[in-house]
Task: inverse folding
């Protein structure tokens, strides 16, 4: 652990430009030196959907490949997913804590915290021994937004820490992006509201972020994640079921009723989609995955003879 103050070379200059928010005077830091490189904050719900976790992984991977570091709050849910995705892509990540560096919170993220301390950087303005308290996290959120040139929200309720971070970013004159979610998902209401009120730009692929932050960069079409170069042959029943799925769990009974399929046909199609990574089971229902959505986007419409996609 080391102390980093405003006059030190490691001090991030962006933290001096927080708008109306108070600028921190010192940081307790553990891990690699804070680099002078572009960073994106990725924040969201502690209770994300599979779709939200998939979106986080895909977008973070694209950001890391373009040279961005990832800042988040080491909370359960989207924050942890963002850190994991950055590390898995051999990228750099900063975990900003709302407590002392020696406190493990939440306990489930203890191993992740230890890994970031080696491969990334942990940052807090709270001295060692300071426990996690509700009042600390809004303070923590201004630092998350302050370290980054833009903030990306992936799912978040109307009253959530993710939206506090977004407001901190807006107050500091930084860009805010949001991934849209289902209107039935209360944990996506905040991100949807940011988009509806034009406080955040809608993002469904990483190129949408680069259009604003790095318009001169050129990026290929997003890959069919999880599919590689292998061909996927969809039979008629699988293709029709795939078109019916969304990011909200749909029960097999509902699919049978909509398509007029017997339960056996529906169950087989769902199993085949799940094995191929195109659908995932969540509770009593099934949701489409990111790979499934990308595959579906390449299909013009359901056919009666199946479809082969390379």
Result:
């Amino acid at each position: 652990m080391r102390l980093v103050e405003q006059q030190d070379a490691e001090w991030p200059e962006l933290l001096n430009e927080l708008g109306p928010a108070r600028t921190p005077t010192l940081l307790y830091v553990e891990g690699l030196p804070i680099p002078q490189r572009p960073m994106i904050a990725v924040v969201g719900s502690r209770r994300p959907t599979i779709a939200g976790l998939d979106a986080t992984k895909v977008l973070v991977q694209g950001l890391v490949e373009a040279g961005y570091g990832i800042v988040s709050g080491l909370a359960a849910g989207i924050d942890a997913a963002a850190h994991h995705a950055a590390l898995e892509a051999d990228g750099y990540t900063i975990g900003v804590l709302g407590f002392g560096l020696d406190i493990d919170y939440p306990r489930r993220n203890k191993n992740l915290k230890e890994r970031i301390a080696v491969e990334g950087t942990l940052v807090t303005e709270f001295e060692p021994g300071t426990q996690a308290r509700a009042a600390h996290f809004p303070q923590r959120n201004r630092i998350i937004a302050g370290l980054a040139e833009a903030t990306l929200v992936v799912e978040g309720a109307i009253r959530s820490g993710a939206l506090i971070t977004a407001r901190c970013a807006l107050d500091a004159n930084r860009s805010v992006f949001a991934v849209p979610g289902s209107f039935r998902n209360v944990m996506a209401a905040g991100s949807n509201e940011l988009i509806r009120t034009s406080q955040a730009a809608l993002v469904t692929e990483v190129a949408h972020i680069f259009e604003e932050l790095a318009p001169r960069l050129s990026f290929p079409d997003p890959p069919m994640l999880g599919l590689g170069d292998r061909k996927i042959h969809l039979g008629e029943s699988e293709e029709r079921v795939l078109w019916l799925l969304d990011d909200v769990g749909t029960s097999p009974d509902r699919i049978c009723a909509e398509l007029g399929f017997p339960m056996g046909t529906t169950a087989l199609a769902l199993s085949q989609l799940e094995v191929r990574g195109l659908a995932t089971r969540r509770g009593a229902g099934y949701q489409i995955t990111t790979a499934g959505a990308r595959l579906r986007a390449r299909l013009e419409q359901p056919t009666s003879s199946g479809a082969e996609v390379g």
About this structure: Residues 218-230, 302-310 have pLDDT under 50 and may be disordered. The first helix runs from residue 50 to 65. The first strand starts at residue 2 and ends at 5.
